Automatic annotation (TrEMBL):
This is Histidine kinase. Keywords: Membrane, Transmembrane, Transmembrane helix. The lineage of its organism: Bacteria, Bacillati, Bacillota, Bacilli, Bacillales. The chain crosses the membrane at residues 7-28, 34-51, 58-76.
């Protein structure tokens, strides 16, 4: 059950990072600063809402970055 939660948080972080760094600035015309703050606030709220241990959040943040790199390699031409 713990592994599923870590993977779920990682996917949420990676999808938010993908949306705020690639989709919002390039396709919707948002400023990069606004996109960065949207990502920071969203992830901060997610980490505050979910009452998990700190090491689960750190592991899911690192896995989220790895998943984001995979998204970049697969989906961005």
């Amino acid at each position: 059950m713990l592994f599923i939660r870590i993977i779920l948080y990682s996917f949420v972080i990676s999808i938010m990072l993908f949306l705020t760094t690639i989709v919002l600035p390039d396709y919707l015309g948002f400023n990069e600063r606004i996109s960065r703050w949207i990502f920071i606030i969203t992830v901060f709220v997610i980490f505050l809402i979910f009452k998990e241990k700190w090491w689960i959040k750190v592991i899911s943040a690192f896995l989220g970055l790895l998943f984001f790199i995979v998204y970049i390699v697969l989906f961005v031409p």
